[in-house]
Amino acid sequence: MQSAIVRIDMATHQELKRLAAFLGTTVGDTVALAVRRLRQDEIGAELRGRLTEDEMGWLDADLG
Predict the structure, then answer these.
(1) Coil, strand or helix at 7
(2) Strand (E) or helix (H) holding 59
(3) From first to last of its 64 residues, what are the pLDDT tens digits of the chain?
(4) pTM (two decimals)
(5) Is there a contact between 27 and 16 (Cβ–Cβ < 8 Å)?
(6) Are the CB atoms for 20 and 29 separated by under 8 Å?
(7) Per-residue burial over 14-41, b = 16 or more CB atoms within 10 Å of its CB, e = otherwise
(8) What is the C-alpha end-to-end distance of the chain, expressed in Å?
């Protein structure tokens, strides 16, 4: 697995270590989980948004 260095403040690093211990994961896996959760939240917000005219057209399309 390739890796990269990300600079964070010590308080954030300590919180990541605490969360990793609580979850029984590594710090890296905890960051991956957090990124996934943020992405899911972003997708959820997008889905809650108003539909475009094209999307409304698809919903109103005659399927038969």
Answers:
(1) coil
(2) helix 53-59
(3) 798 999 999 999 999 999 999 999 999 999 999 999 999 999 999 999 999 999 899 988 887 7
(4) 0.74
(5) yes
(6) yes
(7) eebeeebeeeeeeeeebbeeeeeeeeee
(8) 50
Residue located via tokens 């270590």? 17
Residue corresponding to tokens 């957090």: 34
CA angle 56, 62, 64 (to 5 degrees): 155
- What phi and psi values does residue 7 have, to the nearest 5 degrees? -85, 125
Tell me if residue 49 falls in helix, strand or coil: coil
